[in-house]
Amino acid sequence: MAIRTQYLGVLGEEHCFSAEAQPGTAAAPGYVWQGLRALFGALEEARFALAGRALQIVEWDRTHQYCGACGGRTVARADERSRECPACREVTYPRLAPAVMGLVRRGGDLLLARAARFPEGMYSALAGFVEPGESLEQCLEREIGEEVGIRVRNMRYFASQPWPFPHSLMIAFFADYDGGEIQVDGMEISDARWFDAKKSENLPRLPARISIARKLIDAAIGEMREV
Ligand SMILES: [Zn+2]
């Protein structure tokens, strides 16, 4: 039996709900439990987004049963997605942590980096979480400066993608090189290099095609090969 259920909205013509089950609950006949990451690329985009939404809402609901200000029991508000504390009126909403991704170009070269946690040989665009008080552009400048010692300018929005691991939103930009030599921080980033976008044989292993990182890289390579 479900501990809690949440209404998610309508997909196509179906009303959708999420539910939190007791740990160790067996899957219903004909069903299996599956981690969200394994479904990335396996489910079509709208279903994957729904699964990501479900996971985030369930987790937020589970961890906000009590008020963070006074410790009182919270109740769900009926008119919006929030929980309110009847004692002190504190209201909480589902959290989202925005993260920016930046792909830096210098002439015909792309700056790609290897995070220590990446699969062997894989390189990608740089990314990091936005801090309170920062614009997306400022975050990008800071992250790229901290991680690889490069200054950037002329940031252009590319696209965004929900990233429910556990509650992020990835916002991707192109940026132009403005100065500095590559100097990796040695903590988050283990290596960073310029790759000639026209020489596909020299490109490293890239992230999965469904990821926004790969779409960003492919879009840049496509544009750079046209000129
Ligand atoms: Zn309270």
Please explain how this structure is put together.
The chain is an alpha+beta fold and 227 residues long. The chain contains 4 helices and 11 strands. It has helices spanning 36-39, 45-63, 136-148, 212-226, and strands spanning 2-11, 14-21, 75-76, 83-84, 91-92, 97-106, 109-115, 126-129, 151-163, 168-179, 189-196. The longest helix is centred in the N-terminal third of the chain and has 19 residues, at 45-63. The protein starts with a strand and ends with a helix. The structure holds zinc ion (ZN). Residues 67, 69-70, 72, 85, 87-88, 90 line the site of zinc ion.
Gross morphology is: globular
Give unreliable regions as ranges.
Answer: none
Largest sheet: 6 strands, mixed
Q: Give the structural class.
A: alpha+beta
Alpha-carbon distance between the two ends:
59 Å
Quaternary structure annotation: single chain
Rg? 21 Å
Q: Helical amount among residues, as a percent range? A: 10-25%
Number of helices: 4
Strand coverage percent: 25-35%
SSE run: EEHHEEEEEEHEEEH
Total beta-strand segments = 11
List the bound ligands. Answer: zinc ion
Question: What average pLDDT do the residues reach?
Answer: 94
Short description:
Helices cover 22% and strands 34% of the residues. The protein is α+β, with helices and mostly antiparallel strands and 227 residues long. Strands 6, 7, 8, 9, 10 and 11 form a six-stranded mixed beta sheet that branches.
Question: What key attributes describe this structure?
Answer:
three-stranded antiparallel sheet, 227 residues, six-stranded mixed sheet, binds zinc ion, single chain
